[in-house]
Specification:
- The chain is built from 16 helices and 20 strands.
- The strands form four sheets. The protein has a seven-stranded mixed sheet, covered by helices on one side. It has a six-stranded mixed sheet with strand order 5-4-3-2-1-14. Strands 18-17-16-19-20 form a five-stranded parallel sheet, sandwiched between helices.
- Strand 17, helix 7 and strand 18 form a beta-alpha-beta unit.
- Helix 5 crosses helix 6, helix 6 packs parallel to helix 7 and helix 13 crosses helix 15.
């Protein structure tokens, strides 16, 4: 009979929730090496990094460049050569013959000891992995201090009968699952429940490690977790911040399936006391999570693309107020510049509201009247437009003068322009091409107008003061491009509009299906037609943070030329 101390092992697991940069293989490898050195000092035995951490995730068509794949493999080999007594699980792109794989390398004792190829390749929503990778079809188990460990990657864990279950049946008592799992509203709770079920159903400890970063439209929120074999949460990292957790877990030492391929990694040692207990980050609500995603997505997009400062047109309205507040939290007030660009139609209230907002946020603000340029355009086009009344053309001219002004400031000072359009406006085309749509990043493009109001009230509540002036939140929204203009002259109330948009855009319901649910037929037909006809406008806009299950962009790929009306 085996000695009692040989029946269980105490393993120190490290979850490295870090922020890689897509394409910066050298920088990512350096971060992995530094984290590994710190883990060694902390007595870590198994250290897990996120999915494709060496390339950054998602690398998209970069992996079609042979040299890129070669460079990431070279970086992996260089790192592996430095490893000693801690097992590192590192995401990278593997190449076998002509096939590419989304892979995890198991590194220790100076070399790559094994490689796991992701078996379930997502090809829905924002994912496009079958375009690049072949699916793996086998696995090895790894014995660490006498305990059997399996390795899986992201989507592998979502199938209850998938690779995690297969490895558990072969004897795995610990599964390291590395992820590039993007955020959308409601996903955090869904993810936690799912991982808990996998741990409980398979009677194995699961370490779920997720990256935390903004990558173009996507935000990866971290929230790395460790569950014991009963499905009890032992540790959870905070969302939207880099964090490395070390947790001691007790796992059984078992022989495993005699037919399973097992690689011996670390020798058996006597179990020690559990010294490092996991910390569980506080639970946050949907609005807090959305705000965190907007801040992280904006910060990473601006900084990773080489900018330090941003400029925002401050109209005195709620959308630009929210974008400015997000930018301040993302970059610091000293890096945010506001510009008021009044015209003959701008109300005095809007001007003072913009100034009050800038003062509350502590940002620089200047005023540049667009009236001289607008008047010049009217004179320039007077002969061509003779005999025709003023209409949307003149309204759009004002917006385009403002866009040109912001881009001039961007060129002169190196500031990125942040646009201020929300999802409700973008959906129905209530914006001006080459006007208010001009800019480098569309911070709130995936927020329906009703969510804009929610977030503004959240900001004031969080700070326990009026960061965003109450009058900005309560006054009727208006583009102020003609006398006494209000949004509700062109659009239904946002509560009504957003309910229809949520069904038509985010749930992919047809107009007929929405009408059958009791919504006004004429209104639904009008709104759905506006959404369809505005696809060409949206396609020309900048990227922005994705916070819903279906955003305009990677999620929703409809043809511009499209006669289907449902």
């Amino acid at each position: 009979m085996a000695a009692p101390f040989l029946t269980h092992a105490t393993l120190r697991i490290g979850m490295a929730q870090i922020n890689p940069v897509v394409g910066d293989i050298a920088s990512n490898a350096t971060r992995v090496s530094r984290t590994y050195a710190d883990a060694l000092e902390r007595g870590c035995e198994v250290l897990a990094f996120p999915e494709l951490v060496l390339t950054g995730y998602p690398p998209e068509d970069l992996v079609l460049k042979s040299g890129f794949v070669t460079d990431n493999i070279a970086a992996l080999q260089a790192f592996a050569a430095t490893t000693t007594t801690c097992v590192a699980v590192v995401g990278f792109v593997d190449r076998v013959g002509d096939e590419l794989f989304n892979a995890a390398a198991i590194c220790t004792q100076g070399r790559v000891q094994g490689v796991y190829h992701k078996q379930l390749l997502p090809n829905y929503s924002v994912f496009d992995e079958q375009r690049y990778f072949s699916a793996g079809n086998d696995f090895s188990l790894f014995r660490v201090n006498g305990a059997l460990m399996g390795v899986t990657i992201c989507e592998d864990i979502w199938d209850p009968d998938g690779p995690v279950a297969t490895q558990a049946r072969a004897g795995a008592v610990l599964n390291i699952n590395i992820n590039g799992s993007p955020f959308h509203r409601g996903k955090s709770g869904e993810r936690q429940q799912m991982v808990s079920e996998r741990a409980r159903d398979n009677k194995c400890v699961i370490a779920y490690v997720n990256q935390v970063c903004g990558q173009d439209e996507l935000v990866f929120d971290g929230g790395s977790m460790l569950f014991d074999a009963s499905g009890t949460l032992l540790a959870k990292s905070a969302q939207f911040v880099e964090e490395i957790q070390f947790v001691d877990v007790v796992v059984p030492r078992t022989a495993g399936d005699p037919n399973a391929e097992v690689q011996e990694l670390l020798p058996v040692v006597a179990p020690r006391e559990v010294a490092l207990m996991g910390t569980i980050a506080a639970t946050t609500n949907d609005i807090e999570q959305i705000y965190g995603a907007l801040v992280l997505g904006t910060r990473d997009y601006v900084r990773k693309n080489g900018f330090t400062d941003v400029v925002i047109g401050l109209s005195g309205g709620i959308d630009s107020a929210l974008v400015a507040a997000i930018a301040v939290d993302a970059l610091g007030a000293e890096h945010v510049h506001g510009v008021s660009m009044p015209s003959r139609y701008s109300s005095e209230g809007s001007r003072t509201d913009a100034a009050t907002l800038a003062q509350n946020l502590g940002i620089d603000m200047q005023t540049i009247s667009i009236e001289p340029a607008f008047e010049a355009y009217l004179q320039m086009t007077a002969a061509s437009f003779a005999g025709r009344p003023q209409d949307l053309t003149e309204e759009n001219l004002q917006s385009r003068v403002r866009g040109t002004t912001l881009m001039a400031l961007s060129n002169k000072f190196g500031w990125m322009v942040l646009t201020t359009g929300n999802k409700s406006e973008l959906a129905v085309g209530y914006f001006t091409l080459y006007g208010d749509s001009v800019g480098g990043y569309a911070v709130i493009k995936d927020l329906l107008k009703t969510s804009v109001y929610e977030l503004c009230r959240y900001i004031n509540s969080k700070h326990a003061r009026e960061v965003i002036p109450e009058v900005v939140i309560t006054k009727p929204p208006s583009a102020e491009l003609r006398p006494d203009q209000r949004d509700d002259q062109s659009l239904p109330p946002y509560e009504v509009l957003d309910a229809i948009l949520e069904m038509y855009v985010e749930q992919d319901r047809t107009a007929a299906e929405i009408i059958a649910l009791g919504h006004d037929e004429a209104l639904v037909r009008r709104i759905s037609r506006l959404v369809d006809l505005s696809e060409y406008k949206r396609r020309q806009g900048p990227p922005g943070v994705r916070v819903t299950l279906k955003a305009f962009g990677k999620d929703r790929r409809l043809p511009i030329t499209n006669a289907y009306r449902g």
